[in-house]
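@channel anyone free to eyeball this complex?
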Amino acid sequence: MRGLQRRLAEFAAARDWGQYHTPKNLAAALSVEASELLEIFQWLTPEQSAGVMADPESAHRVEDEVADVLSYLLQFCEVLGVDPLAAVAAKIERNETRFPPAP
Amino acid sequence: MRGLQRRLAEFAAARDWGQYHTPKNLAAALSVEASELLEIFQWLTPEQSAGVMADPESAHRVEDEVADVLSYLLQFCEVLGVDPLAAVAAKIERNETRFPPAP
Amino acid sequence: MRGLQRRLAEFAAARDWGQYHTPKNLAAALSVEASELLEIFQWLTPEQSAGVMADPESAHRVEDEVADVLSYLLQFCEVLGVDPLAAVAAKIERNETRFPPAP
Amino acid sequence: MRGLQRRLAEFAAARDWGQYHTPKNLAAALSVEASELLEIFQWLTPEQSAGVMADPESAHRVEDEVADVLSYLLQFCEVLGVDPLAAVAAKIERNETRFPPAP
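replying in thread with the prediction:
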């Protein structure tokens, strides 16, 4: 993941895109891409949504949008110095206390 | 990252949340959390948005929303068998061709 | 609707909020509020989602988020001089041709 | 607005789309369209965002996405029996108390 973050930073630098990559713009782009992922599912029943990878075209769309979401998330974390894996680990620990397991 | 994905899966299983975790619902939750991240920035100028980690309270909010976005993305990828890092690597390669570096 | 648009404009002016109401910020706020509306439904089955107004607390939440979405949409249209009703009418006309009725 | 709501309902009925129009799906579609509106602005500076209607192509895109957002909002309100204008009026009244005007 660190390697991908570096490649994304180099990719943006080589295109002089850093000027656009404010935290605010990257947060907006992340939310736009997350919506494009949701768009694939918006009219599907829960059952149809579970079978979405069986169709090669939808499978490719899903992978493509996942890539966009994760790319913007990594770039957002890079510009703000946030460690996303540490953030998830900390959240899981807090949630262990907030939501005790079912008996 | 694989370790976190496993912990998230165990966490959901222990609370019997699997029934809610259809790909459609996880995509909706991911997009809702991405919007909560954007909410932190919505009224800020570009300059203010760059300084958001200087305030401990905003910094914590940012880390918390990053954790939520990545958690739902990992759970979404888990239920559909998508490898998010491979998806980003493939996308970077496609984009190298689509967007040649500035001269 | 014109009356509400005027009241919203006066409300913002009286609080000196105009400086925050760039089209970009209002579009971000609109999308954040639309996600808050979606949040109410994210874990519900299609059937449960149809019954959401039966519970007074959810009904109130739904109405509150509808109000937020429409308020930001009206303010966005106001600052850019867009007539939202004319835009919908034009779109319906285009769609009549794009999607012929089922036989 | 009531007239548009009726036309949208007839349009959907003539295409047998009612089966897809659960409140949950319409809330998802509304949030997807609000993100498409935001997408137009995501890399713009606040100043550029204020000038977006000067370019006929962006102006058309903005009007088109406004139409989509309002169409799904009206359809959502129709299936749940929510009066969107009454909801905004009630919200403005609550907000008059919550946020007193600047002195």
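from a first look: Chain B touches chain D at residues 28, 31, 35, 45-46 (CB under 8 Å).
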